[in-house]
Amino acid sequence: MFRIRKEFHFSASHQLTHLPDDHQCARLHGHNYIVVVELAAEALNADGFVRDYHDLKALKIYIDDHFDHRHLNDVMNGPSTAENMAKHFYDWCAARWPETSAVLVSETPKTWAEYRP
Ligand SMILES: Nc1nc2c(c(=O)[nH]1)N=C([C@H](O)[C@H](O)COP(=O)(O)OP(=O)(O)OP(=O)(O)O)CN2
Ligand SMILES: [Zn+2]
């Protein structure tokens, strides 16, 4: 199996309003997010690629247009946890690129959430 990954960065604010008031993440705060998209294929295409990294530019445009320097509570349906963000980006990518195998989202240098069906 071949696997490729590409990383995307954006900055955004959010507030996890479903958490108790004394939870730090119930307060308005922000993160420098990292999104990693992974694609997998048993065989390479004629170019020797799982998929051309350049094709993934559409995700950069989507992130820049809808997520970068936005308030995620206004963007996401439901809580903007890293898990929900990973699933959201997985669904967006899988609808375009059937080789999509997983999406990982980091909110802080120490945390990663992954959606891998
Ligand atoms: N499973 C999840 N837990 C938490 C999420 C999440 O999306 N999924 N999100 C948050 C906060 O939004 C934020 O990410 C804070 O994370 P946390 O690691 O708790 O914060 P710190 O960087 O301040 O951690 P320290 O260990 O104190 O440095 C919370 N949990
Ligand atoms: Zn947060």
TrEMBL record:
Its cofactor is Zn(2+). It catalyses: 7,8-dihydroneopterin 3'-triphosphate + H2O = 6-carboxy-5,6,7,8-tetrahydropterin + triphosphate + acetaldehyde + 2 H(+). Its EC number is 4.-.-.-. Binds 1 zinc ion per subunit. The keyword Chaperone does not apply. Pathway: Purine metabolism; 7-cyano-7-deazaguanine biosynthesis. Signal peptide: none annotated. One of its GO terms (molecular function) is 6-carboxytetrahydropterin synthase activity. The keyword Zinc applies. Belongs to the PTPS family. QueD subfamily. Catalyzes the conversion of 7,8-dihydroneopterin triphosphate (H2NTP) to 6-carboxy-5,6,7,8-tetrahydropterin (CPH4) and acetaldehyde. This is 6-carboxy-5,6,7,8-tetrahydropterin synthase. It comes from Sulfitobacter profundi.
